[in-house]
Design goal:
heterodimer, A: about 425 residues, five-stranded antiparallel β-sheet, 8 helices, 22 strands, elongated, B: mainly alpha, about 80% helix
């Protein structure tokens, strides 16, 4: 607690002192009458200065929220002596904002408890520490203030608001485990694949009697088995383009959230590689636990500036299983990220790149030179996309405001028409 | 807004009163009052540091007229209480502008009480003037002693309350944050 005098105390003291001094010097008793109200005010205020006693209890109505959600920070205040004027100002981290006035003013009666709720709004995803509160207790005369800063102690995790995707990029290859994807290979399954001549060991229930009758020999149906796939989300967090309210990293995390969920729901294994200044990864796995792991890992995502020239060989082999689909989410701004993507394609991974377009974060050109630079930048980005497409990697530019489903559909369309290209 | 308007009204009244009785000193007093009201305006706009100067100039304009023209003594308590009321209204206006107070109406009886108390203090002083007192050097010494004692009380109290700060035990007892 820090008690300090307010400017009023100094102002009134100075006025009273000057008036009394002038009264003595000039010999005018009227000036004493001018000073008397201020002197009386000061004497009373200092004599009656209270010792503030305050107990603050903080509670948040939940520990998890989604971007855009509103939540209430509950406060219970008790003062034995009462406080004439109590100002409460929560200090919020940048991703949270006040849902009401920044400063709340209260009057606490002696011994009575006051409960109030401070509305907050979750503006950006992330992990936050809540509860930092500046408390200022003023006396009745307004000459002194007791200030106290409460440290944050409540944890709040704000998850990104993800778009719900109906259709996903279908992996070209599947894994041996059961899943919802129709495998390209033949085996036990439901989807019809082909008809072939009967061989000893084939089940009688698979005999295609119509074909057998027509050909005069036994033929059996072949089918595609249902398998799962490995999907690796490759987040390029080496660089970002940002505005005050949003950045390419925010959109990258939202897209990753939106993509990971449906793949996991379809019994696929999903892994995560955060390729940034600090490389982090999650080996592919399936199930609800993996979903929570991915969400928690995404909340820790940040752009950490680094000069270290990283390559994909820093990644453990288990993070990139063979025949997995690598979905890269990148603003295509950092050379190291671009090289890593080329390297992955060179290692034969089935890939697709979602270009988190940074163009929306660039202000309009102010003169001809800036206009020219902007055009050259756009052209170089186009050339970069063409380079990847030549390698058989679809690159879809995901603009701000464009639904993610539309970008995913573009990837699907590219893969449908381009067929499979092996490097 | 009402606090702001009230502060400006009282400030203008305090500036106009000596101006009306200034006579040939009207330009000087008028200039002082104008500057005082302007400073009052800046204080109301947020530069609270200018408030003591505004009140000081209003008091000075009254003092100039009083010294040169011999104002009736009975006017001084009203000017003193008016200055205090102006100051309180300015501080109240700034506090309310900083954060809205759901119980702002409670300030009204408080301001009235402060003004009346100030007025009473002024009249007590004025009444004390009428009491026969020794003249000459002894009177001067008595006046200085009275002034010093008047100032000594708040000064001693301020030193006690603010000079050494608040010790740790007091601090923990005063405000506790418990989660």
């Amino acid at each position: 607690v820090r008690r300090s005098a307010l400017p009023k105390l100094r102002a009134y003291s100075a006025l009273a002192a000057v008036s009394l001094f002038a009264a003595v010097v000039l010999g005018r008793p009227e000036l004493v009458a001018l000073a008397a109200p201020f002197a009386l005010f000061l004497a009373l205020s200092v004599a009656l200065l209270p010792a503030h006693d305050l107990t603050v209890e903080l509670v948040a109505d939940r520990e998890r929220a989604i971007e855009g959600d509103a939540l209430d920070l509950g406060l219970r205040l008790v003062s034995e002596n009462g406080i004439e004027r109590l100002e409460l100002q929560p200090s919020l981290p940048p991703g949270l904002e006040h849902g009401g006035p920044r400063i709340r003013v209260l009057h606490l009666r002696p011994g009575s408890a006051c409960e109030l709720e401070l509305p907050l709004r979750c503006r950006r995803w992330g992990g936050y520490a809540l509860g930092a509160l500046e408390v200022r207790a003023f006396d009745r005369f307004g000459i002194a203030v007791d200030e106290h800063a409460l440290e944050p102690s409540l944890a709040l995790r704000v998850y990104p608001s993800a778009e719900r995707l109906q259709r996903l990029v279908r992996p070209l290859e599947t894994q041996p485990y059961a899943g919802n994807l129709v495998a390209r290979t033949k085996g036990d399954g439901i989807e019809f694949a082909d008809v072939r001549a009967f061989t000893p060991g084939d089940r009688v229930r698979r005999v295609n009697w119509r074909v057998s009758a027509r050909r005069g020999a036994l033929y059996v149906n072949e089918s595609h088995p249902e398998r799962n796939a490995d999907v690796v989300l490759f987040l390029d967090t080496l660089a970002e383009a940002s505005r005050s309210d949003e950045s390419t990293l925010d959109r990258t995390v939202r897209a990753a959230m939106a993509i990971a969920g449906p793949y996991l729901d379809a019994r696929n294994r999903v892994g995560l590689i955060d390729f940034g200044g600090m490389v982090r990864w999650l080996t592919p796995a399936s199930g609800t636990t993996q979903s929570h792991r991915i969400v928690e890992a995404l909340l820790e995502s940040q752009v950490a500036f680094s000069y270290v020239w990283r390559r994909t060989d820093v990644l453990p082999p288990r993070t990139l299983p063979p025949q997995s689909l690598v979905l890269a989410l990148s603003p295509l701004l950092d050379e190291r990220g671009l090289d890593a993507l080329v390297d992955l394609r060179g290692r034969g991974f089935d890939m697709a790149i979602l270009d988190i377009s940074p163009l929306g974060y660039v202000g309009p050109a102010r003169d001809d030179e800036e206009e020219l630079a902007l055009r050259l930048w756009r052209l170089s980005r186009g050339a970069l996309r063409y380079r990847y497409e030549r390698m058989g990697v679809p690159v879809v530019e995901w603009h701000e405001g464009m639904p993610l489903a539309a970008a995913i559909e573009e990837v699907r369309s590219f893969r449908r028409h381009a067929g499979r290209l092996r490097v | 807004l009402s606090a702001t308007v009230g502060a400006l009204a009282v400030g203008l009244a305090l500036g106009c009163y000596p101006l009306l009785r200034a006579g040939t000193l009207a330009p000087l007093v008028g200039a002082l009052a104008t500057v005082a009201v302007m400073l009052l305006g800046t204080a109301l706009l947020g530069l609270v540091g200018s408030l003591p100067w505004a009140l000081g100039l209003l008091g000075l304009s009254y003092a100039i007229v009083d010294v040169s023209r011999g104002e009736p003594v009975a006017a001084a308590p009203f000017v003193g209480a008016g200055l205090l009321l102006t100051g309180e209204l300015v501080y109240a206006a700034r506090e309310l502008a900083r954060a809205s107070d759901p119980k702002a109406d409670r300030r009204l009886p408080w301001l009235a009480g402060i003004t009346l108390a100030g007025l009473s203090a002024g009249f007590v002083t004025v009444e004390a003037i009428g009491v026969a007192s020794p003249t000459g050097l002894s009177a001067e010494i008595l006046a200085v002693a009275a002034s010093a004692s008047l100032l000594a009380l708040p000064a001693a109290l301020i030193r006690t309350r603010f000079g050494r700060g608040v010790n740790r035990d007091d601090a923990e007892r005063t405000v506790r944050g418990r989660r």
